[in-house]
Amino acid sequence: MTRRTACVLIGLAAGVSALWLTVAAQGGAPAAQNRTAGKTRTYYVAADEVTWDYGPGGTNRITGQPFGKAESEWMASGPHRVGKVYKKALYREYTDATFTRLKPRPKEWEHLGFLGPLLRAEVGDTIQVVFKNNLKFAASLHPHGVSYLKESEGAPYHDGSGEESKRAVAPGATFTYTWPVPERAGPSHGDMSSVLWMYHSHINEIAEVNAGLVGPLIVTARGMSKADGTPKDVDRELIVAFAEISEAESPYVQENMQTYMGDPNGVKLIRDPFSVPLMVNDGPAGTGDLGQGDYSLKESLNGFLFGNLPGLTMKVGERVRWYVMATSNFELHAPHWHGNTVVIQHMRTDVATLLTMGMLVADMVPDNPGVWLFHCHVAPHLRGGMQALYTVEAKQQASGQGRGKPAAKKAEASRRTP
Ligand SMILES: [Cu+2]
């Protein structure tokens, strides 16, 4: 090696080092070098008995009319119908371990309806849930996606550990779940900056999910959370569960029949060949009342039917992230957004495909202000009320720069699409 060659090589090495340092300073260093210890995010969640109304507005907000004949099978109580109000078991968030004060749900999350509290984490964090069971039956929290040891799985089954029975939280008892959030719980290559998971009770899983014990969990990529936990590249998040709830499967079915039916003795619970419970009319033929039958199936969005789901709001131009999920019955849904489009797994669409316990992320940048329909396209679900309205507010415009006259804009905002 000549002295000149050595000088060139030293110069090149220095240049590469400087380049590396520059790249590292700009955040281009390998992820491992940027890692910091994550936070522990603690939530206080109880399972409570709650009286739930599937249609609190009392009207079909899609048609703008009071509930009529078409809706009454699901919404009106009667001799052999429960109606729209049921006792349920729901997860609710409290302020601390005393479980004396419910944590108020912010307005932007009022649309969560009967879903449990939103649990959040960034990759590298640990979620801790202090769970109190205020029900008369054992329950648990079983999470999807995040990591857990057997004691925090919330699902007893014969796995040879001999500790299965410890995973049911007895009535009145409290248990703390610990769920680390590793890379594999966060977005994968090609995902958006956050992913949706869910949690639900998993002791007598079918009965408990139909009782309402299910909630959402969002994991954001490492370094991608704002201080409030939302993803940095998103302005508005919405979570909608296409929740086909079978009230005949609920642990409260007998109690709801006794409380809300005029003639509960005229209805009996039978099991179909697949052991699915059904309410059928036990009275004399020709009474004109078919009993509950399929009407104990509530085709809900977050526990609301016929447009009663509140709070799906956003503004034109916002980066809106919809998290859409389904619950645990024989569910096949086709969520359809009117008025705007979404991107799901890099594909532009306005209809998604969602199966039982499915979870998907759909990004929307709405360009079309107004009140728009968001519904399931599966015909029996559409008929049964699996419909909501979402509102896209026009951007604030400087006076004189708005598009259209105020009256026209108002009319546009109130327009409903069939
Ligand atoms: Cu559906």
Keywords:
alpha+beta, disordered C terminus, 4-stranded mixed beta sheet, disordered N terminus, 7 helices, globular, Immunoglobulin-like, 418 residues, binds copper (II) ion, 32% strand
Description:
With 418 residues, this protein is of the alpha+beta class. The protein has one domain (40-248, 301-393): Immunoglobulin-like (Sandwich). It has helices at residues 3-25, 31-34, 69-75, 205-211, 253-260, 379-383, 406-414; strands spanning 40-53, 59-60, 65-66, 85-94, 119-122, 126-133, 142-143, 174-180, 194-200, 214-220, 236-246, 267-271, 277-281, 297-301, 313-315, 320-326, 332-333, 335-337, 342-344, 347-349, 354-355, 359-364, 370-376, 387-393. Strands 4-1-6-8 form a 4-stranded mixed beta sheet. The protein has a 4-stranded mixed beta sheet with strand order 5-10-9-7. β12 and β13 (277-281) form a beta hairpin. The N and C termini lie far apart (81 Å).
